[in-house]
Write a structure and sequence with these properties.
two-stranded antiparallel sheet, 2 domains, mainly alpha, 434 Repressor (Amino-terminal Domain), about 50% helix, 5 helices, about 10% strand, elongated
Length: about 100
């Protein structure tokens, strides 16, 4: 996930995003270096003026472009770029 690069490309700093979110720079650093939930990604995207998918473009597979999306399960966002990943996620959810 490339949150920091997208933020910078839209003319923002992490400090500015943190200020807009009402959190500390340390907290935003933990977010961009961790696994943020979809609500947090929505907030950041709204602040910088981008789409949530922009944060994942570096992870997109060009080999299987027919499947491309995000699935949120229990607050965790899963990036799906292939039929195999979708099947694996579905199998893991059955357990």
């Amino acid at each position: 996930m490339e949150i920091k690069g997208v933020v910078k490309a839209h003319g923002f700093t992490l400090q500015k995003v943190a200020d807009e979110m009402g959190i500390t720079k340390g907290a935003i650093s933990q977010i961009v270096n961790g696994a943020p939930n979809i609500a947090t990604l929505r907030k950041i995207a709204a602040i910088v003026g981008c789409q949530i998918g922009d944060f994942f473009k570096d992870e997109m597979s060009e080999d299987d472009a027919s499947i491309n999306g995000f699935i949120e399960v229990d607050g965790k966002v899963h990036r799906i770029t292939s039929k195999e990943q979708l099947i694996d996620l579905a199998e893991n959810l059955k357990r």
